[in-house]
Design brief:
The complex is a heterodimer of chains A (135) and B (445). Chain A is of the alpha/beta class and 135 residues long. Chain A contains five helices and five strands; from the N terminus they run E-H-E-H-E-H-E-H-E-H. Chain A has helices at residues 23-35, 46-56, 72-81, 99-107, 121-131, and strands spanning 15-19, 39-43, 60-63, 90-94, 112-115. Chain B is an alpha+beta fold and 445 residues long. Chain B folds into three domains: 2-201, 2-Layer Sandwich (Beta-Lactamase), CATH 3.30.450; 208-282; 291-438, Histidine kinase-like ATPase, C-terminal domain (Heat Shock Protein 90), CATH 3.30.565. In chain B, strands 3-2-1-6-5-4 form a six-stranded antiparallel β-sheet, sandwiched between helices. The chains are: A alpha/beta (135), B alpha+beta (445).
């Protein structure tokens, strides 16, 4: 009958926006992120991604690069120019690993550049939590 | 009078030398032959001696005809061309026309004189056309001189003179002969140069094409690698989720099988990563972020990471860290980690009992790092091939699970740091991989 410690009070789930065009990977990451307690929104192209970012103001954005309509670098550029969005942390999650692209993304203010094929979904979650200072 | 002649001869000699220089200094074939025709009249003062035009005919590349290739830029030459009304290049005399005086000059390598152009241009021009052209240009006599180089006839030079042949002096003929010797040399040189030039151009074109092909290859490798990475990400991700129990309890046998699939896929991912690295390093597109690095720190952290792997196989993994700090080296720390990971990882993979020792040695401005294992050792034949693409030692190692590119990439990386990777090994005696990195000599003030 002891009162639970205050840290155990479930906090409001963090909102995560995943912008990724490969349906297999969308399902995979969405499953993992949801299981880890995130409220997940997904967009399968850059345009929808940007709209969702504006509508949902997520706590963090996980952004692919090679996508239809608007690529991830362009999405990132728009996010940085929008006063309401520019402080949202953005993690690039792409299979492009050209250093030039990485540099471009980092210069535009991405928090980190992750190469998808080198990480398991759990490892991606660890990175996300690091950037949300949840771990 | 004799003074006059002496001075004239001296002038002429100087003129011939000047001419020689002009012609021999010119290497482009077209320019050489045009200069031959133009300069002889002006430079040798032959205009004053009623010489009106010069025609150059050379043996064609098929060795079937003498072909007119150049004509002096004089008014008389212009008139002759108008009267003949035929493009210069179409005037070709078959070498078989042994009655033709131009062919005889070429064949016999002897100077000829003729009052009639019909003898010179038959059968390319009709008697009527040849005569009309000659009359239009006001030519009364023509001197034909063979152009010879290394005893071989190259062609014929024709001098059209507006005076009867009796008035052509022996001195003039001598001068013409002397001049024509230079022409032989110049034509030969220019031809050689043109051939060389053409070959050079072809080579440089081929080189450009190769570069383009190389670029396309890199583009293809890059595109293919990225396309491969997507499905490999899905395989890796889903299997890892199953293994981590995200889909519920997995039977231990099934887990083992899935672990195999996971490792196979990881091998594919490494292979693709290596292919991308090689493609980038080889094309100079990989950017290295060079920094001052304390080697021990990098090695210590990599060794800690690899300790689990060694422990799993019951192997020892010892780093003999030097008591005093090593000199600073300038490297890309991430890439250096990759190399250490690769070399130590290999040592763990191929060693079944005993262990791995890592230690340093200073050698002539280089820090050398030795990775010594108690594995099966490598035969001399395999050592020779080991740093090539897609080769692994074939003996005693069974299925290694490597990409076959790791050592090659490592070597490329260490070479970027101006060092090298070497290997000492004997079958049954273990292997020692050593990589060297130069350090900056800092003078103490």
């Amino acid at each position: 009958m002891s009162t639970p410690p205050p840290t155990a009070i479930p906090s409001k789930p963090k909102v995560l926006l995943l912008v990724e065009d490969d349906p297999l990977l969308v399902t995979m990451y969405q499953t993992k992120f949801s299981a880890e307690g995130f409220q997940v929104f997904t967009a399968t192209d850059g345009e929808i991604g940007l709209q969702l970012a504006k509508a949902q103001k997520p706590d963090i954005i996980v952004l692919d690069i090679m996508m239809p309509k608007l690529d991830g670098i362009e999405v990132l550029r728009f996010i940085r120019q929008d006063p309401l969005l520019k402080n949202i942390p953005v993690l690039m999650l792409s299979n492009l690993s050209e250093l030039a692209k990485q540099k471009e993304a980092m210069e535009l203010g991405a928090r980190e550049f992750l190469v998808k094929a080198n990480l398991t979904p759990t490892e991606v979650v660890t990175k996300i939590k690091q950037h949300l200072q949840l771990s | 009078m004799s003074d006059d002649r002496a001075s004239h001869s001296r002038n002429t000699l100087e003129a011939v030398q000047r001419l020689e220089k002009i012609i021999l200094d010119t290497l482009d074939f077209r320019q050489v032959i045009q200069k031959i025709c133009d300069s002889v009249l002006n430079e040798l003062y032959f205009v004053d001696l009623s010489y009106r035009l010069v025609v150059l005919a050379l043996e064609n590349s098929d060795h079937t005809t003498l072909q007119i290739v150049a004509l002096s830029k004089t008014p008389e030459a212009e008139k002759a061309i108008q009267a003949a009304n035929i493009p210069l290049a179409q005037i070709q005399i078959p070498l078989a026309q042994t009655q033709n005086i131009m062919i005889r000059t070429w064949r016999d390598q002897s100077m000829q004189l003729t009052p009639n152009w019909s003898e010179v241009f038959h059968p390319a021009l009709t008697v009527e056309t040849a005569t009309n052209a000659q009359t239009a240009a006001g030519i009364q006599a023509s001197i034909l001189v063979p152009i010879v180089a290394k005893n071989k006839s190259l062609g014929v030079l024709l001098f059209g003179v507006a005076k009867p042949s009796e008035m052509i002096t022996d001195q003039e003929k001598d001068l013409i002969q002397g001049f024509t010797d230079i022409v032989g040399l110049a034509v030969e040189n220019a031809r050689l140069y043109s051939t060389l030039d053409a070959t050079g151009k072809q080579l440089s074109q081929a080189n450009e094409q190769l570069k383009e092909l190389d670029r396309l290859k890199d583009e293809f490798v890059s595109a293919a690698a990225h396309a491969l990475r997507s499905p490999m990400t899905a395989i890796k991700g889903y299997i890892s989720m199953v293994l981590e129990g995200d889909g519920g309890e997995v039977a231990s046998k099934a887990k083992e099988f899935l672990q195999g699939a996971y490792e196979g896929n990881d091998r594919l991912i490494r292979l693709v990563n290596h292919m991308l690295d090689i493609s980038r390093i080889e094309s100079g597109r990989l950017i290295f972020n060079i920094a001052d690095v304390q080697l021990e720190d990098v090695i210590q952290s990599e060794v800690s990471g690899l300790k689990i792997l060694a422990d799993q196989k019951g192997l020892s993994l010892n780093y003999e860290k030097p008591p005093t700090p090593l000199p600073i080296v300038s490297v890309d720390p991430d890439r250096l980690r990759e190399v250490i990971n690769n070399l130590v990882g290999n040592a763990i993979k191929f060693t079944q009992q005993g262990g791995i020792t890592i230690k340093h040695e200073m050698s002539g401005g280089f820090v050398v790092t030795h990775i010594i294992d108690t594995g099966p050792g490598i035969s001399p034949a395999d050592i020779a091939n080991l740093f090539q693409k897609f080769t692994q030692a074939r003996v005693n190692i069974g299925k290694s699970g490597g990409s076959g590119l790791g050592l090659y990439v490592s070597k490329l990386i260490i070479k970027e740091f101006h060092g090298d990777i070497t290997l000492k090994s004997q079958v049954g005696q273990g292997s020692t991989f050593s990589f060297s990195i130069p350090f900056a000599q800092k003078t103490v003030k």
